[in-house]
Amino acid sequence: MFSPIKRIAAIHDLSGYGKVSLTAIIPILSSMGFQVCPLPTAVLSSNTEMPGFKLVDLTDHMRDFIEHWKSLNLEFSAIYSGFLGSHRQIEIVKDFIKHFWHPQQLVVVDPVLGDDGHLYDSMTLDMVSEMKTLISQADIITPNLTEACALLDTRYNEKMHESELKTLLKALSNSGPKIVIITNVHKSDKKKQTFVYAYNKSDGRTWKVQCDYVPAHYPGTGDAFTSVLTGCLMQGDSLPVALDRAVQFISTAVRATYGHTHDPRAGIFLERVLPNLSAPFRPSSFELLEQE
């Protein structure tokens, strides 16, 4: 089915409260001019940071939803997946990519597995193995440093040397993705800054973008980052510009939220900063690293 607006299939969970996953992805990509077609993997009363959340697993319904989309002959300019809760869901996403793929399409996988050196409680080593097969089908992956190490069976080190980060990027790219982006990299003991590193296999270039560290944790910032990045690339931005715009957006959103008395578990004040996505781009901190 033809559409004059580019469609993005977003395969994520949906939380009724707390700005994560689809409640962040849909407004960001919609405000950037894309039609978001959500394929929910689960519906939650709130994000998982909130105690006592309730969850309805939609795994048994996902294939029926997909079959209906097939019957409508839908086409997607991008496929974007995030948190997946089981082996079955990973298999469903792989089948989805195989059926709906076309040469002009962008496939983005955020391999959500863990953070701060540890896998999430719901993740097992078997899930890590399954995720390795999914990222092989992606054009772009956006793991944090913990997830990058897990996907490569490498020991996590919070203070990795830049040469080690380059090795990780290239090793992950060798598994399939054309572009590998590693987020949430700290480079100082005081954590005054965090960095995003990216490697583009097509030209062999590695990029670095820095942002000031704010001492607060907000769930959903990874979803927002990858959403802005995806939207920018689909609008025709280069990789370093897309990285810079995504980092600037998240930094602004965190700062807009941090000044308020606000339960950080509820996520960022996304609505306050959505207009920034339409503002003229002002280059900030992207840097091309020396090629070896």
Q: Could you list some keywords that capture this structure?
A:
21% strand; 9 helices; alpha/beta; single chain; UDP-N-acetylmuramoyl-L-alanine:D-glutamate ligase; 292 residues; two-stranded antiparallel ribbon
How would you describe the overall organization of this protein?
- With 292 residues, this protein is an alpha/beta fold.
- Helices cover 36% and strands 21% of the residues.
- The chain has a 10-stranded mixed beta sheet, with helices on both faces. A two-stranded antiparallel sheet has the order 6-7.
- α2 packs parallel to α3 (87-100), α3 runs parallel beside α4 (125-135) and α7 runs antiparallel to α8.
- The protein starts with 6 loop residues before the first strand and ends with a strand.
- The mean pLDDT is 93.
Main sheet characteristics: 10 strands, mixed
- Give the distance, in angstroms, between the N- and C-terminal Cα atoms: 46 Å
The total number of structural domains is 1
**What proportion of the residues is helical, as a percent range?**
25-40%
How large is the share of residues in beta strands? 15-25%
Number of strands: 12
CATH class equals Alpha Beta
How does the overall form come out from the CA principal axes?
Answer: globular
- Enumerate how many helices there are, as a single number: 9
CATH architecture: 3-Layer(aba) Sandwich
CATH homologous superfamily designation: Ribokinase
